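Moderator note: this is an archived Q&A kept for reference. The question asked for a predicted structure of one protein chain; the sequence and the answer are reproduced below.
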Amino acid sequence: MQALEENKSVNSPNRQYTLERTRNIGIAAHIDAGKTTTTERILFYTGLIHKIGDVDDGNTVTDWMEQEKERGITITSAAVTCFWTQKKEEGLEKLFATVPQRINIIDTPGHVDFTAEVERSMRVLDGAVAVFCGVAGVQPQSETVWRQATKYKVPRIAFVNKMDRTGANFDNALADMRNKLKAYAFPIHLPIGAEENFEGVIDIVNQKAIVWGPGDLTTEGLKYEIKEIPDAYKEKAKAALQELIEAVSNKDDILAELVLEEKPIDPLTLKAAIRRLTCRIELVPVLCGSAFKKKGVQVLIDAVVDYLPGPLDIPQAEGLEPGTDNKIEVASDDKAKFCSLAFKLWTDPYAGKLVFFRVYSGHLKKGDTIYNPRTRKRERVSRLMVIQGSERKDIDAVYSGDIAALVGLRNITTGDTLCDEDFDVTLEPPTFPEPVISMAIEPKTKGDRDKMSEGLQRLAEEDPTFRCFTNEETSQLIIAGMGELHLEIICDRLKREFKVEANSGAPQIAYRETITKSAEGEGKFIRQSGGRGQYGHAVVKIQPNEKGKGLEIENKIVGGAIPKEYIPAVINGIEEAIRSGVYAGYQMIDVKAQVVDGSFHEVDSNELAFKMAGIFAFKDAVKEAGPVLLEPIMKVEVTTPDEYQGDLLGDINRRRGKIIGIDAKNGQTVLNCEVPLAEMFGYATAIRSLSKGRASYSMEPLTFEQVPNSVLNTILDSAKSRPAARS
């Protein structure tokens, strides 16, 4: 079968790689599953680098920040462009053999504190490679990135990594995907051997064995041989092929017809059917290998090309006409009007402010003018570039489906649409979770105050989950983020990039408030001090909203009790009271509020008076509505040798944790728990001490729950004495 026919009508004659030959993919997984190592191997085999870096040595392309090199983790998503041509090999049929492909790769973080990087990357990707550890299987952050991919309708393939590690089990990892992720996952490769005996994979579709030979693991790539399947695996390979054909034919009409007619199904026909289902997010092909040992990487790149979609293989993007609900299709077409989404901002020490963007339609050249529907302003494009980790390469133009960076734009925020002025459309921006932890920060010297403010402002522009604000009661500067590590990295970047030495307080929890019953409150703001006075009067009804539904404020005024021009002021007052809280000074969530009555004065009424009346009325209602304090609860997974299980269980119980389940996996015990974030400070040190360094844990935000009475008074007293901790 030849490569799919290219659609000439949508491609500019000036572009080197057509839309059909473009892949925008992300590498996503739980922390330490091997994402960056996999990316580094892909870059080596595609010829972008000639010496393979290693996470432990701090010399990988995509982990280029100093903090990433030192800690061995990915902090910021890195965009890299590489190129791949599938070899036409005896025994391996490939859909796109000998057709050069351009692959834009985004390597995303695995740590929960940097989940915003995954969120915004998923928003602009066409496909993803989900990497799973062959030993641990599906881990908590694996579930999070899977949900994010599902949310943005991103097709994906799965790569079970670390098959060379002790305890690696491909079948267990596959079962985990089906049970925990509810994925319609079926292997297209099976491992030959495992742990120290892992030597290659069986290509189920082609019914061939692919075996990697010996080689220098530090500098050279390992070459593979295509062989007949070993006798010990022949029956298993045949059964796996029949299972794969049955799974695909259950969802693909073309293949189902061939099965019903009992016609032979050749590898290319099966591959085309797998591709159709993968692009429709109805099937997850599963591969395996060892990225560190360089086994399985070349065939993974082939699978990216064969199965993951190009921009034309997925539903076209849709936007809204600004200020309306009218939908506008944004077609992947170089000749259409230009439209793109700014998904990431980054301050580069050499190039200045970079705006990473994904082009959905049209093309953009240096010197062109782009329009921002949010600000209603135009800007001229002076410089375009693609990023190769820490290197920048200037380019003259970008086309539909490309991911690149703009330099020098102002007044841009994450999620802005950038388009032609006569194509006024707004694309859906990525959404981000609210911060769960905060602390006070101040410069060590007064001279650093301005530098620190500028640095924090830039960091807040780059990171949508990082907030900084001044506490009105204490005038302290507060920073808020997704976890201890997140804020630690922020302070470290302040010191390195902006040369600001800062003192910080202990981290504080971002508690929330809500109500438990309905109530009504009245607020009056009356001032008379000679001459014209002020008069505002509002009555507000409140009730609990469904959990997770957020805030709803409605105007239920009838008969003109409050003039229309003052209703927005009342609502602004309610919103301000919600932000500042009533019970303990923390933001409120899941509340419905209605403005139901009030009165006004012909002369003395004004917007300020009604805003104050709204604040007073809402606070009055909350006092009668059974207010409660909520705390963030974390989903925690602890993996430990059996002998430390009792000590760790006792420690979790002391931290007010609930044990949800205890599982045995690969000779170790896995504790699934729900623990208040307030009790997790210092847990990294505690778990090392209790297990002699042999246990590990991961956690992610789960929900908000009511604070128990046993600790409520302590929290309330602390909030009153340390108002800077509120957020």
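Archived answer notes: Confidence is low (pLDDT under 50) at residues 1-5, 723-727.
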